[in-house]
């Protein structure tokens, strides 16, 4: 782990993808006992989940460019996304929640032509309200928090919006997204990539790789252009960028070369350079 830190690494399925509960790598790679799956079965299961996620990210959960001919900008979006991460820090919540909210936000605004979407892109106030509402949806649906609209309006938004406005837009966003809120994220891909590390790989190093790659994803999501890349591409680019300063010999020693090659093959050609 110190070696990594010193080198700058401090389906067309009709249903919604629900990320499986976090598993320790120890549990994931335990040899077969009794009725439990064998190691090869567990790896096959991970690969199968990744394949479903790849299909869903390119179909149901895909976002498109939406900032052409609008009265809001990429810088406005970046400020809102950073505010979302700041809220997570203040509440001591995982940044994944803000990342999910950003995904909702981009997908919602990708639906150009709908009156509710055009209204949000034509007015700073409505643009901000859309992000706040997406953050509330992520807190409710993925963090399991119960949040009263009055609290959001008065505490989070300092009276800028009425509770009724938040409730109304929440319904509009849910309908626009088709109530599909459990799509795969870049951090989901990273988690599964980490599970594919060689058997016996140092747990502490694996955890560091996960956290550092997710931090790279966070920075990528602040960039409007990068945020619209497929989550798997953003995840792979984030992981690849961690090894730019590590020579091939050190990567081979750590068992990382074959791992990077394996997940690169899984993702095929991403067309996205390291962040």
From TrEMBL:
Protein name, per record: Cyclin N-terminal domain-containing protein
Annotated Pfam families: Cyclin_N
Domain Cyclin N-terminal stretches: 49-182
UniProt region (Disordered), positions on chain: 1-27
InterPro entries referenced in this protein's UniProt entry, alphabetically: Cyclin, Cyclin-like_sf, Cyclin_N
Domain of life (superkingdom): Eukaryota
Signal peptide: none
Organism in which the protein naturally occurs: Cyclotella atomus
